[in-house]
């Protein structure tokens, strides 16, 4: 048990003396046992432990043993000291303090003493555990029962502060997920921190692996679409089953998911409407529709408005027939999602400046998806050399495919029949 500050002063003082009763210097003592000598103390500045006489030391030891028999626990010299200079006491409840104080009074009365201290001034804890050293070894059973709560910061501007504390984030980093891109997106960071790896992430990893997605593609896939980690497994399985019912192979579905990670987040009804649009609006067969969608699966994820607008541009502004549009879309599906401004600029230069008819553009639709500036430089260089002939009936015919696809060195030596230095000097004049 522990005693109050007044008793501590009496018990800890090195100036305890054995002598006659002096009431003027013994405040706080209500009485003493019959036949017991009076106890009084002097200021601790008058004496020290080193200057105490042998008789005084013997008395202190006897006095300490007497108080110990009463159930009093003495403070040791190694008692932890707080920053304020006072020795800290173990915390205890009010009920324990009252019970311990009453037990101390019983011990004092049984031993013949009559020292009475108010309960409110006592700090007693009979159940206090002894101080354990941080170097003391504990058993494996005790170590297992130790629970350390995760020390996660309450708020942060980056996921880097949570990686060491979150198993989910550590495993996502090992998969190749770029957290720096995800933390820039709204509410994505807080969503990832709340996810449990075993309950939320692991089942979806197994699902994607069974689908045919390789390990090297998992990181980029989650980086582009982290919401797949919260999507229902039943819904994703239903969408995969629908695509396979439309005769998409397992390899095609896996390739589509890698190229368009948001594909599994759209409902079966939406996927069905998109496939029906390409068959009805463009007139593609089921086989060609599967081929176009497999090569460019984002056609099923994006908005249909740009696609409808480009189809009108091809038909009304460019003057292509529907059969020609079907051939162009089958060969180069990207023209459906390309910018209207870019398509208009490229077609105007090819058809009006270079003089290429619609029939040749349909045979080589890749020119509609090429870099207009690069094509313009090469055309002007061929025109400067007198070799800008794109009609297949001409002896020095230049293929549109070689015009826009081959590298500059091959273009100069095999198409323009000039040196690469001449082409560079010509580019400086533009």
List its salient traits:
single chain; 430 residues; mainly alpha; two-stranded antiparallel ribbon; 22 helices; 52% helix
Secondary-structure topology with pairs:
Elements (H helix, E strand, L loop, with lengths): L4 H8 L4 E3 L18 E3 L13 H16 L24 H17 L29 H6 L14 H4 L3 H9 L3 H4 L5 H7 L2 H15 L3 H10 L8 H13 L4 H10 L8 H15 L3 H10 L9 H13 L4 H10 L8 H14 L4 H6 L8 H14 L14 H6 L2 H8 L4 H9 L2
Antiparallel strand pairs: 1-2
Helix pairs in contact: 6-10
Which spans have pLDDT < 50 for at least 5 consecutive residues? 14-52, 75-94
The helix/strand class is: mainly alpha
Radius of gyration: 45 Å
Helix content: 40-55%
Looking across the biggest beta sheet, what order are the strands in? Answer: 1-2
What is the averaged pLDDT score?
77
Number of strands: 2
By DSSP (H or I, 4+ residues per run), the number of helices equals 22
Largest sheet: 2 strands, antiparallel
| Quaternary structure state of the chains depicted | single chain
Order of helices and strands: HEEHHHHHHHHHHHHHHHHHHHHH
Dominant shape: elongated
DSSP strand content: under 5%
| Distance between the ends | 98 Å
Q: What does this protein look like?
A:
The longest helix is centred in the N-terminal third of the chain and has 17 residues, at 94-110. This protein is 52% helix and 1% strand. It is elongated, with a radius of gyration of 45 Å. The chain has 430 residues and is mainly α. The chain has helices at 5-12, 54-69, 94-110, 140-145, 160-163, 167-175, 179-182, 188-194, 197-211, 215-224, 233-245, 250-259, 268-282, 286-295, 305-317, 322-331, 340-353, 358-363, 372-385, 400-405, 408-415, 420-428; strands at residues 17-19, 38-40.
